[in-house]
Amino acid sequence: KAKANGRSTYAFYSQELTSQACERVQLATSLRQALEQQQLVPYYQPIHDLKSGEIVGFEALARWQHPEQGLISPARFIPVAEETGLIAAIDRRILEQACRQTQAWLNEGRNLCFISVNISSRLFHRGELDIQVAKILARTGLPAHRLILEITESAVMEDAEGAMIQLDRLRKLGVSLAIDDFGTGYSSLQRLKRMNVHKLKLDQGFVKGLPHDAGNVAITRSVITLAHNLGLRVVAEGIELPEQAAFLLEHHCDLGQGYGFGRPQPAVNIVWQSTASMQYGQSAMAARPAVDRLPKR
Ligand code: C2E
Ligand code: MG
Ligand code: MG
Ligand code: MG
């Protein structure tokens, strides 16, 4: 009897595994088609200067507009894209669309400083990233100094020496560089100095606990001080609450993004709104419709 049970349990699991593997293969196949059919598009999340409140740039975030399943988030398709190597083509596609859109905004007279785009470790370590970026800038007309490439700490650490060479080439091209999810990886301070990037993006995990979590307060303050001493600017991610924004401003964090200011949106839906009109830093920020739905603490 026990044996029979064991067998059926085994059969159950193996069936489940097979269907999971099946789903992955299906996802990979339809992701390849999605690329051909232009279903991968950037959404844009505003990045505000915390002092003036103005929108100074956007982060481009990939979305898959699936004809049947609707909007699919990166959490679902990026792992498959990384496994299959499709991620490099996705990154290039998002990069090109984002550069083109930003140049269009500049042509309309929008006062934008930059567009920030995520670069996967795969594309970063491929060696010819600088050449591909140069081509995209030439095709879209966006000046190099308007582009920020976001690279994660862990991507740099995969091959630190190769990373230094690539970062150097990108810098010579005139693009800016940011370390994404800063504080979640293991880069040494020595290495951070040598990477010679322009911005650090403070991971949202640290912003979450502000201003109550003593540990996150200490980390946030240290990262801001460290960055400023090295001549870098700090972008805080995941700002949802007015008190988080107020804390970051008070501690001289330069830039910020988060649902509290604006969610990632298609280009046509962007509302060009300063945080000043959100009565930023006061509880009235919670009066904004988008913020109404945020959990209160
Ligand atoms: P990331 O680059 O660290 O981007 C920030 C993520 O935080 C985005 O998630 C954004 O929508 C989300 N976010 C922004 N504000 C808030 C907030 O106030 N609260 C919370 N809880 N979340 C907030 P998203 O768009 O789902 O992207 C997730 C990750 O997927 C990104 O993290 C990035 O690592 C990756 N990704 C997105 N687009 C691309 C892409 O085009 N290429 C590559 N290689 N990776 C991408
Ligand atoms: Mg990012
Ligand atoms: Mg990030
Ligand atoms: Mg992050």
What topology does this entry show?
Layout: H1 2-36, E1 40-49, E2 55-66, E3 70-72, H2 74-84, H3 87-107, E4 114-118, H4 121-124, H5 129-140, E5 147-152, H6 153-158, H7 160-173, E6 176-182, H8 189-195, E7 199-202, H9 204-208, H10 214-229, E8 233-236, H11 242-250, E9 255-256, H12 289-292
Parallel strand pairs: 2-4, 4-5, 5-6, 6-7, 7-8, 8-9
Antiparallel strand pairs: 1-2, 1-9, 2-3
Description:
It is a single chain. This protein is α/β, with parallel strands linked by helices. It is 48% helix and 18% strand. The protein is built from 12 helices and 9 strands. It has helices at residues 2-36, 74-84, 87-107, 121-124, 129-140, 153-158, 160-173, 189-195, 204-208, 214-229, 242-250, 289-292, and strands spanning 40-49, 55-66, 70-72, 114-118, 147-152, 176-182, 199-202, 233-236, 255-256. The protein has an 8-stranded mixed β-barrel. Helix 11 links the parallel strand 8 and strand 9 (255-256). The protein is globular. The N and C termini lie far apart (54 Å). Residues 281-297 have low confidence and may be disordered. The site of one magnesium ion (MG) has 4 residues, from strand 6. Residues 24-278 form the EAL domain. This is cyclic-guanylate-specific phosphodiesterase. It comes from Azomonas macrocytogenes.
In short:
The protein has helices at 2-36, 74-84, 87-107, 121-124, 129-140, 153-158, 160-173, 189-195, 204-208, 214-229, 242-250, 289-292, and strands spanning 40-49, 55-66, 70-72, 114-118, 147-152, 176-182, 199-202, 233-236, 255-256.
Features of the shown structure:
single chain; disordered C terminus; globular; alpha/beta; binds ligand C2E; binds magnesium ion
